[in-house]
Amino acid sequence: MKSGAVCAEWSEPLGFHATRSSHGSKKAAELALLSETVLAPDATNLASTILELDELWSFVGNKTNQAWIWIALCRVRCQVIAYAIGDRSQTTCRHLREAIPFAYHTSHCFSDFWGAFQAMIPEEQHMAVGKETGETTHVERWNTTLRQRLACFVRKTLSFSKSLVMHEACLNLFLHRYTRCRKQAFFCEPRSRWTN
Fold first, then answer.
1. Is 174 part of any domain?
2. Could you tell me which residues come within 8 angstroms of residue 102 by beta carbon, excluding any fewer than 6 positions away?
3. Which of 42, 134, 173, 175 is the right S-S partner for 48, CB 3.0 to 4.6 Å?
4. What is the span of the domain harbouring residue 170?
């Protein structure tokens, strides 16, 4: 599928609409919760519930004010199903775990060796692996995509968010657009490509 192609079921534009508040500043239109926009796992395919977890360093205002982005990505659909923003502690990991949709609560998770993952995810559902195993390549690639597309997430940049609210709004808008594009690819891609 070419990037500009749009199928009949998803013919609405991918842009987001903004409204002006009484103060004259633009605000993003209200978005649905991320958990309401993700595709449900395929009940006939256990691999569709495998999750890859990772954390991504970013900052707000200056580099001493760190804002870690915690991501849970469905391996089969390459779709972010949950995120949390905070420090690099078990508390933020718990917020990520609570944000994961119910359909994925019993999923097997792969992550790096960061202790918060091992403390917050039950041992029978979690496997800590190194990058050389390839078990977290999808989420690592997604982190790269985020850094390429949003300047405020690049490590060495002149672009940065001035407030945590705007930092999260930027991430949330990107996640919703990315999710809609993944849905488009899933529903519009010819199935014959996968059967040959």
1. yes
2. none
3. 42
4. 45-185
Indicate the pairing of strand 68-74 with strand 59-60.
unpaired
Q: What is the spatial distance between Cα 103 and Cα 134, in angstroms, rounded to a whole number?
A: 25
**Strand residues in 21-134 grouped as ranges (E):** 26-28, 51-56, 59-60, 62-66, 68-74, 79-86, 109-111, 126-128
State how many domains the chain has: 1
Q: Which amino acid is at 141?
A: R
Which pair of structure tokens corresponds to residue 115? Answer: 């202790």
Contact call for residues 178 and 81 (beta carbons, < 8 A): no
pTM greater than 0.85? no
Residue 190 lies in a domain: no
Distance from C-alpha of 114 to C-alpha of 78, rounded to nearest angstrom: 22
- Collapse the DSSP code of 22 into the 3-class scheme (helix H, G, I; strand E, B; otherwise coil) and give the result: coil
CA–CA dist 89, 124 (Å, integer)? 21
Taking the alpha carbons at both ends of the chain, their separation in whole angstroms is 17
Q: What CATH code is carried by the domain that includes residue 55?
A: 3.30.420.10
**Beta bridge mates, 144:** none
> Closest by alpha carbon to 170, among 26, 11, 54?
26
**Could you report the per-residue pLDDT of 50-103, keeping only the tens digit for each?**
899 988 888 887 778 788 888 999 988 888 899 898 888 899 889 989 998 888
Domain for residue 6, yes or no? Answer: no
The burial class, CB within 10 Å (0-12 / 13-18 / 19+), for 82 is buried
